[in-house]
Amino acid sequence: MTARIVNFNPGPAALPLQVLEQVRDEFLNFRGSGMSIAEISHRSALFEQVLNDAIERVVRLLKLPGDFKVLFLQGGASTQFVMIPMNLIPEGSSADYINTGTWATKAIKEVEILGKPHKVIASSKDRDFRYIPKDFQVTPGAAYLHFTSNNTIKGTQWATFPKAGDVPLVSDMSSDILSRPFDPKPFGLIYAGAQKNLGPAGVTIVIIREDMLAREPANLPTMFRYTTHAEKNSLYNTPPCIAIYMVQLVLKWVEETIGGLEAMEKINREKAGLLYGYMDSTDFYKGTADVDSRSMMNVTFRLPTEDLEKKFVAEAQKEKLGGLKGHRSVGGCRASLYNSISKEAVESLIAFMKDFAAKNG
Amino acid sequence: MTARIVNFNPGPAALPLQVLEQVRDEFLNFRGSGMSIAEISHRSALFEQVLNDAIERVVRLLKLPGDFKVLFLQGGASTQFVMIPMNLIPEGSSADYINTGTWATKAIKEVEILGKPHKVIASSKDRDFRYIPKDFQVTPGAAYLHFTSNNTIKGTQWATFPKAGDVPLVSDMSSDILSRPFDPKPFGLIYAGAQKNLGPAGVTIVIIREDMLAREPANLPTMFRYTTHAEKNSLYNTPPCIAIYMVQLVLKWVEETIGGLEAMEKINREKAGLLYGYMDSTDFYKGTADVDSRSMMNVTFRLPTEDLEKKFVAEAQKEKLGGLKGHRSVGGCRASLYNSISKEAVESLIAFMKDFAAKNG
After folding, report:
1. Which of A135, A165, A303, A358 could anchor a disulfide with A308, C-beta 3.0 to 4.6 Å?
2. Bridge partner list, A192
3. Which residues of A are known catalytic residues?
C-alpha cells in the first residue's frame, strides 16, 4: 500500500490498516449474509452481535464495573454538551465545569443556553489554555464535575484526572479515550466522538453509570433522554450501523493486536516522548503547551515564522506526511498521534523535521 | 457476485451494487488522497467536494427552488420529530398533524412532550392505519401541516400530497424520497433518514425553506437549531462522512445511471404494479392496505395462516430472497421495493410466491 500516506489528522483520523482492509474485504458480503454491512437490518442477529461485541470490548478494555451502560449515539460530542446538563442536573442542583479550551467552552455554552445552574470552578483561559489547571475547589454536592480529558486544539491533556470526592466526574474523552487505562469508578458519564481513537465519524460513545439515568427530569424529548437509548441497547431507532461496525473492529484491534490499554499507553508514551524529546532538543520547533500539561495525543508546535509553517506543512505533504496543519483557530502545526499512528510513523516525522530544520534553520 | 442475496429489507435496505463496489474499491485510498474516506478531514477540499456534489444533486433531482437549503444531520428522523416543533412553531402558533401510522404517531408524541400547540386534523387509526385520510380541514394559519409521505410499517403512501394552501407542508419522506418527482414549492421542510432510498443508516437529510429558518425561537441549544447547520453547510461539527459519501454515490446513481426521478418513478410503478397485480390475482396473498392507499415502496401482505407466513419467509431466505418478514408490531409479510430493487428482483419474488402458493395453497 505505498499509495497510502502517514496521516496525522486531528479527526477524522488515521485508522488501523487491518481494520480498513477488513471493511473493504467484506463490504459486499458481510459474514456470509449476502448483504453489505450497509444493507443488513439493525435488528438482525448479525448486527446485534457486532453491537454487543463492541460493548463487551469497551467494558473489558476500560474495566467498567457492572453498573455502567455503554451506548452508541449520534450527533457527536456537541450533542452531549447539551444532553448532559439536560439529563444530569436535577432541580435544585448545580454542576461544576473546568474550562481548558475550545471544547470545554462549547460545553459550558450549552449549560448556559439551557439556563441550568452551573459554576466554572477553574479555567486556563488567562494563558490561552496552554495548561491544565491545578488549583480548584470542587463544589460539595455538585451534580457533576465536567472536564475535557484531552484538548485537541490546544495540545494539553490531564495527566491524572481531577479528584472530586463524591461528585461524579463527567468527561469529554473524544480525543484520548482508549489511549491509556484509568479508573472508571469516579465517573458518572464518559463520552467520546469516535473519529479520533475509536473509528470513523458518525457515532459517539456514551458510558453512563446507572445512578445517573435516574436523574432524568420529566418531559424530556425521547431522543434526548439517556434512558431511551439505555433501555433499548442503543436500538431505539436505526443506529449508524457502519460506524458502530468499524468501532467494533478498532476495539478488537486494540484488544487483540495491541494487547489492551496498558500496552497501548506504553506505545503512546513512547511516540509522544520521541517527538517532544526531539522538539526540546532544538530551538526551531517550539511546543505551545506547558511541559507538565502536554498531550500525548496532539502535539502542537510553532516554527520561527508563519511562512515556514506553511512551507513545513506543504513539504511534509509531499513526503506523504499529511494533516500537520494546526487548527484554523490557533494556527501553527499539530501532529496528532492517536492510537493508529505507529512509532515508525513518528520516527519518519522526526526525520523530516530534522531535515526541514537543517535546510530552513 | 452470486453470493449476494436479493434484499427486501425495510431499512437499512439494499443499495445499488455499483455504489457498494465503488466504496470497496476506493476504501483504502480515497481519490488519490492516500487516505480512506473514513480518515480524511471533514474540512478538506476533498470532503467538501463530496458534500457539495451531494447537495447539488439533491437540488437538481428534486428541482428545488433557490430558497431551499439541503442539510445532512445526525440522529435519524426520530430527532427531526422533536427538532421540527422546537424550531418551527413560533409563540402563539399551532401546527397541524395527520396521523397515518407508527411514525406519524411518534412525531405527534414529541410535539406533545414539548407542550407546543398542535392539532391532529386527521387519522386513519380507526382502521389500523390501512388507508390515507382524504377528508380533513387544514387549520388556517397553522405553523405547518406535518404528514408521513410513505408508511413503511402499514404499507400505505400518499398518492398525491395534501393541499394546504398557504400552510407550509412538513413531511417525513424517509421511506419514499427520490422514488418519484413532486413539486417542492408547497414544502417548508422535508426530512428523510438515509437508510432506505438514500444510502446507509447514520445520516438524515433535511431540506428546509429559508423562511422557516427565521422562525427559530431564542435560546435553543446549538445542535438543535437548524440555523446552526444551515449557516455552516452541515459542517458545524464533524459530520458522518462515510454516510454522506455513500449518499452522494447513490444520488449519482439515481441521476446518471437511472436518469432522474421521472425514470425512477416509472421503474418503481412497474415493480409495484407487477407485485400488486399478482397478489390481486390470487386469494393466497392478501394485501393489507386499501387499494387506493397502497405504497409503491413497502408492499405488506398476509398469507392464510401465521405458520405459512413463517414458512414463506424462511423458504424465501433459502432462495436468496431476504427481508420479507413484516414489522414486529404488525406481523405478516412485507416486500420493500426501494429504488435499488430491480424489476428482475421483483419478478424472481413473484416466481417464488407463485411456486409457494402452488405447494401450500
Report:
1. A303
2. A205
3. 103, 172, 196
In our burial notation (b when 16+ CB lie closer than 10 A, e otherwise), range B88-120 reads bbeeeeebbbbbbbbbbbbbbebbebbebebeb
Q: What is the pLDDT of residue B2?
A: 58
pLDDT, tens digit (0-9, with 9 covering 90-100), for B191-249: 999 999 999 999 999 999 999 999 999 999 999 999 999 999 999 999 999 999 999 99
Q: Tell me, yes or no, if A79 comes closer than 8 A to chain B by beta carbon.
A: yes
- For position A1, what pLDDT does the model report? 46
The tens digit of pLDDT for each residue in B46-83 reads: 999 999 999 999 999 999 999 999 999 999 999 999 99
Burial class of residue A272 in the structure, from the number of CB atoms within 10 Å of its CB (0-12 exposed, 13-18 middle, 19+ buried): buried
> What percent of chain B has pLDDT above 70?
99
Tell me the mean pLDDT in the region B274-302. 97
Q: Find residues 219-258 of chain A whose CB sits inside 8 Å of chain B.
A: 219-224, 236-243, 246
Q: Where are the domains of chain A?
A: 17-258, 260-360
Residues of B in contact with A203 (CB under 8 A): 202
**Considering only alpha carbons, which residue of chain A is nearest residue B225?**
A79
Class of domain B260-360: alpha beta
pLDDT class for B1, splitting at 50, 70, 90?
very low
Question: For B255, which DSSP code?
Answer: I
Residues of A in contact with B39 (CB under 8 A): 7, 9, 12-15, 200
CB nearest A76 (choices: B13, B221, B237): B237
A39·B12 Cβ contact <8 A? yes
B17-258 and B260-360 agree in CATH topology: no
Cell of B119: 392539532
Instruction: Round to whole Å and give the CA distance between A137 and A143.
Output: 14
Given a cut of 60, whether residue B290 has pLDDT beyond it is yes
CATH 3.90.1150.10 applies to domain B17-258: no
Which amino acid appears at position B330 of this protein?
V
- Closest CA–CA distance from residue B96 to any residue of chain A (Å): 19
pLDDT for A330: 87
Q: Which residues of chain A have pLDDT under 70?
A: 1-2
Q: Determine the length of chain A.
A: 361
pLDDT at A169: 98
Which pLDDT score is estimated for B225? 98
Q: Which residues contact B269 (CB under 8 A, 6 or more apart)?
A: B296
Q: How far B145 CA sits from the closest chain A CA (Å)? A: 20
In this prediction, residue B328 carries a pLDDT of 86
Instruction: Please report the number of interchain residue pairs, chain A to chain B, with beta-carbon separation below 8 angstroms.
Output: 220
Does the interface predicted TM-score (ipTM) exceed 0.85? yes
Instruction: Check CB contact of B1 with chain A, cutoff 8 Å.
Output: yes
Do B81 and B107 form a contact (C-beta atoms < 8 A)? yes
Question: Chain B partners of A31 at a C-beta cutoff of 8 Å?
Answer: none
How close is the nearest chain A Cα to the Cα of B99, in Å? 18
Which phi-psi region, left, alpha or beta, contains residue A176 (left: φ > 0; alpha: ψ -120 to 50)?
A: alpha
B4 inside 8 A of chain A by CB: yes
Q: Considering chain A, what is the average pLDDT of its residues? A: 97
pLDDT 10s digits, B135-170:
999 999 999 999 999 999 999 999 999 999 999 999
User: CA of A135 to nearest chain B CA: how many angstroms apart?
Assistant: 31
Distance CA B138, CA B141 (A): 9
Query: Based on the number of CB atoms within 10 Å of its own CB, is A257 exposed (0-12), middle (13-18) or buried (19 or more)?
Result: exposed
Name the closest residue on chain A to residue B84, using Cα atoms.
Answer: A221
Q: Nearest-CA residue of chain B relative to A193?
A: B238
Residue B59 near chain A (CB below 8 Å): no
Peptide bond just before A239 cis, omega within 30 deg: no
Beta pairing partners, B208: B69, B189
Residue of B nearest to A103 (CA): B237
Strand A118-123 with A187-193, pairing: unpaired
